[in-house]
Amino acid sequence: MTGLKSILCLFDGDETQAPALDFALALCVRHKAFLHVLHVTEPIDPYLELNSAQEANVVDSQSHISDQIAWVVRMRAQKFGAALWRGHLNSREFHEMGVGYEALTGYVEKVVPRVARTSDIVICSKTPAKKDAASDVFMSTLMRSGRPVLLVKSYGNSADPGMLFDQDVAVAWDRSVQATRTIHNLLPFLQAKARLHIMSVAEQNKKIDVRDDPAVMYWLKRHGFVPTLHLMAQGDTPVGELLLAKTRDVGAGVLAAGAYGQNALVEKLIGGTTIDLYKQAHVPLFLTH
Predict the structure, then answer these.
(1) pLDDT, tens digit (0-9, with 9 covering 90-100), for 115-135
(2) Which of 7, 77, 157, 264 could bond 260 through an S-S bridge, CB–CB 3.0 to 4.6 Å?
(3) Which residues on adjacent β-strands are paired with residue 121?
């Protein structure tokens, strides 16, 4: 395990996304990683029928906005280390650590998953305008990138985000493929001081009680961790609420969970544990599909 070495952070200059950028910067410094800050501009709508001069004005405006965002990223990066800034990214240049900025044109739901596939983790902010529904870019990144997503609130986060994987970490476990992938993705990031809390809920109308599973405990012990097991019965409370309540009780700074264990479209339409976590989480979520 080589740890956390490549971070992708989505940032368009909005102040509500600053906490995600700060998380990414702090983790970059703590893990001596490379942070790739990405801004995506959608292409000009061909149905607008702009003339060449109008189209040039739009392009100039987009370029100006991109330069402003790069300046914001550079200023925030300097607060974490004067030597971090690597400027605009060039595909021919390799940077082992530091902070680089890239602006791409395309549809964000397609661009982000493609870029994310060569990163260890994607960090993004919860969209305030979509408090009750997951954003399309969040869903597409989870479903199509193959990488874990760290979803950060737009306010009231950890005072020391760089230590996110050094402290108490809550992990939801239900034997699913998504939960297994989540632990696999989480392990390289965990530091020796991390205290793991395995939380398992016996859901209603399920024949198998997933809580009685010592194998996951043995697996983590082989990696040097001695997790604390928290067993819960669902009752009338949604699984997401139980997980978040227990996360708060144990003082964990992040909740790691598998995402969209059932059909993603069904969850988006009628709800499910992933949507409940998205709407109600008081801590960052480390999610894997």
Answers:
(1) 999 999 999 988 765 555 457
(2) 264
(3) 7
Residue 123 confidence (pLDDT)? 96
Strand partners of residue 200 = 231
φ/ψ (deg, to 5) at 85:
-65, 130
- With 0.85 as the threshold, say if the pTM is over it: yes
How large is the greatest C-alpha to C-alpha distance in the chain, in angstroms? 67
User: pLDDT averaged over the chain?
Assistant: 86
Token pair for residue 241?
């609420």
Contact 163, 199 (CB under 8 A): no
Q: Which residues of 17-33 are buried (b: 16+ CB within 10 A; e: fewer)?
A: bbbbbbbbbbbbbbbeb
DSSP 169-220: EEEE--S-HHHHHHHHHHGGG--TT-EEEEEEEE-TT-SS-TT--HHHHHHH
Domains of the chain by start residue, with CATH: 6-152 (3.40.50.620), 165-288 (3.40.50.620)
